[in-house]
Amino acid sequence: MAMEKVTVAGGGVLGSQIAFQSAYCGLDVTIWLRSEGSIGRTEPKLDRLLTDYLADIDAMEAALTEARETGEAVPAKVWALGIADTDDFDADACRERARHARESLKLELDLAAAVADADLVIESMAEQEEAKVEFFKRLAPLMPEKTIVVTNSSSLLPSKFTKWTGRPEKYLALHFANTIWHNNIAEVMAQDKTSPASFQAVVDFAASIRMQPLPVHKEKAGYLLNSMLIPFLFSGMDLYVNGVSDPESIDTAWVRGTGAPKGPFQILDTVGLVTALNIVEPYCKVPGFLAPYNFKGIRQMLKEKVDAGETGKAAGQGFYRY
Amino acid sequence: MAMEKVTVAGGGVLGSQIAFQSAYCGLDVTIWLRSEGSIGRTEPKLDRLLTDYLADIDAMEAALTEARETGEAVPAKVWALGIADTDDFDADACRERARHARESLKLELDLAAAVADADLVIESMAEQEEAKVEFFKRLAPLMPEKTIVVTNSSSLLPSKFTKWTGRPEKYLALHFANTIWHNNIAEVMAQDKTSPASFQAVVDFAASIRMQPLPVHKEKAGYLLNSMLIPFLFSGMDLYVNGVSDPESIDTAWVRGTGAPKGPFQILDTVGLVTALNIVEPYCKVPGFLAPYNFKGIRQMLKEKVDAGETGKAAGQGFYRY
User: Fold this and answer.
1) CATH topology of domain A227-307
2) CB distance from A287 to chain B under 8 Å?
3) Which residue stretches of A84-187 are H helix?
4) ipTM of this model?
5) Which candidate in B154, B178, B214 is best for mutational testing of the A interface (most A CBs within 10 A)?
6) Interface of B with A in 195-254 (CB under 8 A)
7) CB atoms within 10 A of CB B108
8) Model confidence over A265-303: pLDDT tens digits?
């Protein structure tokens, strides 16, 4: 079953992007919002997304023209794979699709109306467990039988909400990265009651909105990326707090040794140290989990920097000065 | 104290490179070898290094000329920072230095003669504990008092050999990556008796042969790079052996999510699965170490691939086909 009618619940940073990208790919998209106030905050986000898409299409057109003249490859950074492939790029058609996406997006305050004929409902609300439970409770009786429902939650496991959806076999997680038209990966994660047919339908939906679907067959905190990124960041911080070396040398070892663009401390500065501190907290409470790392030392180090206002790149000072 | 006379013990892949690079940077370098047979194996390695340096200097000259014409940056891959900086590159002078390095390198079978006036002895022999102990025992009484001695060991902790060196405060580790004139990082690692002066002298020596010195103030198995790389590879393999996802999706999540050139399975294929299996073994024997990872599952998975001859990129088949 192809997904044609999509309802995104929540108009935050990612909710807006998911809705815009789905509409850009020709789907019939409704954003459900809680209040008139939410509409006032979401409309400008959608306007801004149209501006961003158009600016990126311009940049892609210019880069492709230059690449064809010089015979060089188009810089990967410029190209938004969510917008088009390099070998099948019609800038005017893309502009038209982006404008149509903005016009076609429907904002709706009535949840029953928003999901009345939805093939897919994408929950993309704030990361608050109780608010999500309330939402799924309200949503469950309103959806038609056909509807598949996914959560975009990053840190709360989807199984926390299964029973409130009323349709365990048609419920799973679909996790996007920020700026989805550039970072076009979508982790599709089952919980233990998800049916193979629903899983496949969501994989197909992700591909249909130009995402690279990454199948995650079992529930896993952190999906794929964070399951690797978090232990990696811990291993770097552990070297530092144990006095083995300094952030700059540790970053240099990683960057020079693996060819990666950033080492752990450069990534932490970008993510922000407040987020890092929130991630470390639970590990401090589970004795023996990831046993060799000095989590208490890591927490203390991060806390001192956060308390000093050195919270990362956005603050102008983290492990590095910006 | 500047290091002028350097003795490299061992003419293997890295020993040859360290000796050649040190001579390239103008130092007085002797390679100590165990036998006439070793001389026969080492001479061609040094000839080959001269050829490689000269070819790289040609490539750098061509790339720099092109970059100056187009206004583009020189591709990082082409540039060997161990040979020269981009903004201070005299190709002819570099060629002359490389030829002089090859001519000036002394090969010596007599250990006493080889180290009689050495400022620095670099142990770069096979990774066999007993052979290294024997070497340090022989070496200890032959060195003048001024000599600092370092081990290039990757997997054996330097403290295993401290007592055999006869000079704990002047003994530490200096760890290079392969193709040191390109991968010009050098991890300088103290053991707990190393004096600050010796540590600094080796940091300065590394810089003097155009390496980026990475200080490792405390003994740490894996130095900096492998202390991060190994847990990272485990986290990726753990996702696979627990049925969470497949190697290709896991690699895609990492590459797309972080901008790195390779994901864990692409790195494992390059390193080789036999090496990976050897690294996993000890973790299987320490219950609770890096507790959350399924080491037995990881070992079993690697063993099956190794037994099937699918040992990585060099074999044409690892997690991917080449």
Assistant:
1) N-(1-d-carboxylethyl)-l-norvaline Dehydrogenase; domain 2 (1.10.1040)
2) no
3) 91-104, 111-115, 129-139, 162-165
4) 0.86
5) B214
6) 212, 214-218, 220, 223-225, 227-229, 231-232, 234-236, 238-239, 242-246, 249-250, 252-254
7) 16
8) 999 898 888 878 877 776 666 655 555 677 777 788 888
